[in-house]
Known about the structure:
It is built from no helices and eleven strands. By secondary structure, it is an all-beta fold. A hairpin with a 5-residue loop joins strand 5 (46-51) and strand 6 (57-59).
Amino acid sequence: QVQLVESGGGLVQAGGSLRLSCAASGGIFRINAMAWYRQAPGKQRELVAIITGAGSTNYADSVRGRFTISRDNAKNTVYLQMNSLKSEDTAVYYCNADVWNTATMRNWYWGQGTQVTVSS
């Protein structure tokens, strides 16, 4: 069973930085895209950033230029560097991965979420 374990969330002042990590383990043949989503109180979960297996990236307009997604394929880990944080970035951040468990079985997995709180 694949597990995604996130870390790096916390409380930071507006204008500060945080780096989130998400490590995947167990039952992995290959990982395709990995992504970060977030969900603020009372709002729907939204895509923040995504990185393909080849390293192509895309970002939500609200974070482009401030956040950077990257991955270490050898460690099955994805990162989210968040700079110039704003109060509106406050949310629970979730890791998501498109995983081939075997050569013919593919599933999407979610992490448990990590809280990011930006104080103004």
